Amino acid sequence: MEEDAVRYDSRLNTCVVLNGRGFVGRSLVSRLLRLGTWTVRVADSAPTLNLDESDSVLVDALSSGRASYHCVDVRDKPQIVKVTEGSYVVFYMGADDLRSHDYFYCYKVLVQGTRNVISACRESGVRKLIYNSTADVVFDGSEPIRDGDESLRRPLKFPSMLTDFKAQAEALIKFANNRDGLLTCALRSSIVFGPGDTEFVPFLVNLAKSGYAKFKIGNGENMSDFTYSDNVAHAHICAAEALDTHMESVAGKEFFITNLKPVKFWDFVSHIVEGLGYPRPSTKLPVRLVSPVLSLLKWTQEKEGTGNYYDTAHQFALLASSTRTFNCNAAKKHLGYTPVVSLEDGIASTVQWFSRDLEKSDDTAIQSKADQLLGCGKVADILLWRNEKNTFVSFVVLNLLYYWFFSSGSTFTSSAAQLLFILLVALYGLAFVPSKIFGFLQVKKIPPWRFEISESAVRDLSRDIVVVWNHGVQSLNTLSRGGDWIKFFKIAGSLYLLKLIVSRSLATFIFTAMSFSFTAFFIYEQYELELYHIARIFIECLAVVKEVVLKNLPLPDGSSKPMFM
């Protein structure tokens, strides 16, 4: 009898965390082990347990026997039965990093996997099953959710197949309650973030790297609820305890879990991207412009069956442009849940964790295309405003020269002669100016060697002139024999363009080119990534339109006669 009692007590403290190496699963395992009252079986699909520096608590527990690792595929029921035997509680954390374009695989993991977990728990005599669901199961983006509670109904159609599968899994968990003594409940957390995040924050980082994080979708005033990963883990432990103390109020129910602090969605995003060293979102884009483009790209991706970027981007656009806040009174009342980490502290921890993995210096060291186009030299530094003082001085000098030669009313020859005369007088007068004026104003003299040209410079210049001359003669010989028609058309087009410029207004052309050089290259460098991705999206849209047009073209009639015999 005493041995049976001891065995029963040890079973009460034994739990299984399915997908225990996932994002939220890691937080739950760490929190369970820190409590010191649980024996934790960590189950995941990876064949081996890959530990890092953040797993110090798990390492100690593995060495002391308070934790163990098991390779489990939820698609294989016998594996689940084996790991759940002798346990009292099972925390089913769902699956991370699913390939959303492989719908059959997602269905097998999310829906059939949940059936297997439920069946295995009933067969193993597990008492409590807590499912990590998501608030997405009541959200389709068609209407805002303000202070929504558990009475919200699921939408008839979900924006993504993954969310549909998760809703089906949650329904299975709820339906399995109180069958063969198994008590179940589901926790719907809203936009989970934290160290080790594999979905939301990495997507923000990718947006920031690509330049898209500078844009806001919508007016930027929509409110959202976020949940720190440690708070989600804490809520699961609260639910496990509440299934004993408040069984009638908790069993078979679902509960919303948040940080209890709704904030503007774009304020939260700004804190993350700014903390990681990227500019905060500032430019607003209308939802009516973004949604059709993302829907078209998502449809193209589904047709091709490649990747899940645009599926995630479409889901992000819905979250980013809609108000979505939830009421957690039921979780506070029946589960005893309150956040253990504030939203501000959670953001700080998340930024600190992701900052370690980001190599921002490598990103900034990459030369821009504008810099490469301008030769990566002094001209590039001036036109790209590397040194604002030098650029401003260069701009003013060029404008003065433009006025002197083109707007003063004098001919080009007379303007050049007058400018040369002024320079000579200035240099001559500078020789008589004392090195100090009024005893403190220092005047820098130009040394005579500044006006000297070395023999090597003259030889190099002469050599360059000879090379250019010989190259020009060879090009003329080639063109005269008709050997390079591509070069011929290039030269002919350039000469014709030069003729048009000179015949119209050379002054207007020079002024336009000068203004363009000091603005266009700088603007292009600032928005280089955005322009690149916009161009890529435009090309992909054209490809889709082309494909649709070609498919709808009438097929040639086999009976039609050829036009030429």
Topology:
Blueprint: H1 2-12, E1 14-18, H2 23-35, E2 39-44, H3 56-64, E3 67-71, H4 77-84, E4 89-92, H5 103-124, E5 128-134, E6 145-148, H6 161-175, E7 183-189, E8 192-193, H7 200-210, E9 215-217, E10 223-224, E11 227-228, H8 229-245, H9 247-250, E12 253-257, E13 263-264, H10 265-275, E14 283-285, H11 287-304, H12 309-321, E15 324-326, H13 329-335, H14 343-357, H15 360-365, H16 369-373, H17 378-383, H18 388-407, H19 412-430, E16 436-437, E17 441-442, H20 455-480, H21 485-504, H22 506-526, H23 528-552
Parallel strand pairs: 1-2, 1-4, 2-3, 4-5, 5-7, 6-15, 7-12, 8-11, 9-14
Antiparallel strand pairs: 10-13, 16-17
Question: Can you give a write-up of this model?
Answer:
Belongs to the 3-beta-HSD family. One of its GO terms (cellular component) is endoplasmic reticulum membrane. It is found in: Endoplasmic reticulum membrane. It holds the Pfam family 3Beta_HSD. The chain is of the alpha/beta class and 565 residues long. The protein starts with a helix and ends in a 13-residue tail after the last helix. The protein has a domain at 2-365: NAD(P)-binding Rossmann-like Domain (Rossmann fold), CATH 3.40.50. It contains 23 helices and 17 strands. It is elongated. Strand 1, helix 2 (23-35) and strand 2 (39-44) form a beta-alpha-beta unit. A 7-stranded parallel sheet has the order 3-2-1-4-5-7-12, sandwiched between helices. The chain has a two-stranded parallel ribbon with strand order 6-15.
